[in-house]
Design brief:
The structure is a homodimer of 212-residue chains. With 212 residues, the first copy, chain A, is mainly alpha-helical. At the A-B interface, helix 1, helix 6, helix 7, helix 8 and helix 9 of A face helix 1, helix 6, helix 7, helix 8 and helix 9 of B. The structure holds a DNA duplex (30 and 30 nucleotides).
Chain lengths: 212, 212
DNA sequence: AAACAATACGACCGGTCGTGCTTTTTGATT
DNA sequence: AATCAAAAAGCACGACCGGTCGTATTGTTT
């Protein structure tokens, strides 16, 4: 494995740019993101930045991909440390809300912002977002299915329905935490799922008695 | 009351412009909305349009207000025809989802789109949106409280919590109906609330047996 | 040492944006 | 018919946008 100092430098610039782009996109939108703004924030020239992707759309697509990676690292991976079943479901919900509460992204949730921004704008970016959304939904449903398979949820539970409700509680927390009282929003998101899971799960010891 | 044909003409232009602005804002965003685009869509000149508000921000604020009126007319008013209690709660949820399904707005929900767009952009527009969001939340909680007062929901129900969950089911329907399968999204939003209310309401005859 | 390739840069293009300034059209008043 | 104000249009401006181009810098290869 050769270490080319030139491409290493380029990689560093690219990654730093995409990380900044994810943050900026939740503030001014994925479309509102401008090369000049991003270049300023990074202290590099606009054209130098532009050369890395060749078009704004390519940069936007790369930004979406980077956001997916960050979601994987900061929300999904921590949740996977919990054992399969309702505990993992609960851990994912917690990790998601913790991520919002940590204010890593000013807008709360990159995907919710971008999805609403592009849900009426056909094109490659919308397609990429829809694909990521589909995978996220499928992942949620997988976790629910695992809980059913482990006997921690009744066999007749509507998997897609429960996954929908979990997602809904989380998205709304991202939304309300930025416009209304954040703590109230997080509390409702947590309490909502805890109530739901405790009502479904036959083993009460798998879940906390109350939200922290 | 004198009817001045000139100001009447101005009013007509203004209203038509705001209606178009609400639609356009759910496509390209409230910030992305441009005077030239709006003027083109209406067949008037950019400067003539501009003169009605004096600034873009004033136009944006007026657009938010118009969206509030439309929400009142198309979602809240129809729901208020149902009797107080769980039936009105259910009617509101239905009216909201019907509104999304009718594709009146390409983006689904003006407020969800605008709220995510501005939740990290301080300023008068964000303030106006937050105010409208607060009123909407308070309205939902009032409807829940009425249902409790009517004995159609248990007295110990967490009012704000239930209102949060109802809102969450609706917002997520707006989001998913544009990126994933619309009918599935509407079904989950409806089934979610129906399950919830049927579990809480002592009188099963007040609610439909299944979603339509 | 010479040739080469990956970054990065500053200057610049055509185009669109919001906005101000001036003029024309339109409808009410006398 | 003459006067006047509201509405709409025409025009120009400075700022910013995405994108192109030629060039300088830097590190690798031979």
């Amino acid at each position: 494995m050769t270490v080319d100092g030139r491409v290493a430098r380029g990689d560093r610039t690219r990654t730093a740019a995409l990380d900044a782009a994810v943050v900026l996109a939740t503030e001014v939108g994925l479309h509102g993101l401008s090369l000049a703004q991003l270049a300023d924030a990074l202290g590099v020239s606009k054209s130098g930045l532009f050369a890395h992707w060749g078009s704004k759309e390519a940069l936007q697509l790369a930004t979406v991909d980077r956001a997916v990676e960050q979601q994987q690292e900061r929300i999904i991976r921590p949740a996977l440390r919990a054992p399969r079943g309702v505990r993992r479901l609960w851990a994912l919900h917690q990790a998601r809300i913790d991520f919002f509460a940590a204010r890593v992204l000013p807008g709360g949730c990159f995907f919710a912002s971008a999805d609403f921004e592009y849900n009426a704008r056909p094109g490659p970016i919308r397609d990429r977002l829809a694909e990521a959304f589909g995978r996220w939904t499928a992942f949620l449903e997988d976790l629910v299915r695992e809980a059913v398979a482990a006997g921690e949820l009744p066999a007749d539970v509507d998997v897609a329905q429960l996954a929908y409700e979990i997602d809904a509680l989380g998205i709304t927390a991202a939304m309300r935490s930025r416009l209304l009282d954040p703590d109230t929003a997080y509390r409702h998101a947590r309490q909502g799922l805890l109530n739901r899971l405790r009502a479904l799960c036959p083993d009460p010891t798998l879940l906390p008695e109350g939200i922290s």
